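REQUEST FORM: STRUCTURE PREDICTION
Request ID: SP-0412
Submitted by: Lab K.M.
Chain count: 1
Length (residues): 82
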Amino acid sequence: MYLTATCPFCQSAERLLEQKRVGDIEKIRVDLHPERRAEMAKKSGRRTVPQIWIGSRHVGGCDDLYALDRAGELDSLLKEAS
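STATUS: Completed
RESULT:
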């Protein structure tokens, strides 16, 4: 997950993943490593944080993550990636 320390959407996405018992979230802080923001934009096609991958699948941002959860797809995606 590409994120910043003060982004409320990043914090919300992280909370949802923790509620789903995802224990090992790789966090890339683009506020501490600005060069990683360009990497994020190239990989995702987006410039906003958070940008979230589950396994090799780019899920998008916080709203996208919550939409997957509401659609009942997040749990199976997390299970496939573990």
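NOTES: Helices lie at 8-19, 35-44, 62-70, 74-81.
Reviewed by: T.R.
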